[in-house]
């Protein structure tokens, strides 16, 4: 059966046993409210039964990539199959396409399908929300979003729903895209403005999300001393959003946290800055309050959270949809 979103956007959890569910993009979004998804992600990082092998990245002839990302816990198994083609928007196509297949880990039954791009957008923003909950010195904003695509919209919604942000500034290479995101923010009741100089806007914004296509450096100024930065766009060694000298400044004066150990070989911003990513604590270290986090944490200075992506977040989304553990 296919489950579509009701008019009220009330989450519709699919039946875990009777039949196979297929959630379209709208129903997938409705089933994954950002605060609940952030809770599910935090719960997953406390679960020692979760197994996430390295993801397979297959280059495609046109310059894109096919990602194959399996993971499992004691009850669920998933495989995420998505393609990423950076220049697809110029063709009128989404940059990310694909699905997430959900299985019962005990008997192998296929339980259903989730919309891959929707899960990717929402779980990435929910991870940033969780990191901000844990690490941000100030949560009131204004929030600066650099990059007005799918992730810009998802992070806007996540920070509004999960942190109560009421003011947002949007910067993008495309004025039309920035204006569209500003209108969306205003429709949500936020004070929203387009800014044409992202570097200058950093001085006024204690919350920053960079989610550009990461094909070139987009930010060269230093964030505020009390800033929380979620750097999202660069998820391969060759991609970059933040200038290397800014990353080195943040490492010297503040706290750097990566989403998972996969960032050791994927965090383009930090790798191109010559930083030892392997020495940085992960978000799981923060959640679990490990010695690695206690050694690295500072009570002052800016915080940079580097997000690269991980199939575990997709498993957390499947748990959230199916009403699994969230605490």
UniProtKB/TrEMBL annotation:
Query: What's the superkingdom here?
Result: Bacteria
GO annotation, cellular component aspect:
cytoplasm
State whether keyword Oxidoreductase applies. Answer: yes
Q: Which GO terms describe its molecular function?
A: oxidoreductase activity
EC number(s) of the enzyme? 1.5.1.49
**Gene3D superfamilies per UniProt:** NAD(P)-binding Rossmann-like Domain, ornithine cyclodeaminase, domain 1
Write down the InterPro entries for this protein, in alphabetical order.
NAD(P)-bd_dom_sf, ODC_Mu_crystall, ODC_N
Q: Which UniProt keywords apply?
A: Oxidoreductase
Enzyme type, top EC level: oxidoreductase
Q: Which PANTHER family match?
A: KETIMINE REDUCTASE MU-CRYSTALLIN
Q: What is this protein called?
A: Delta(1)-pyrroline-2-carboxylate reductase 1
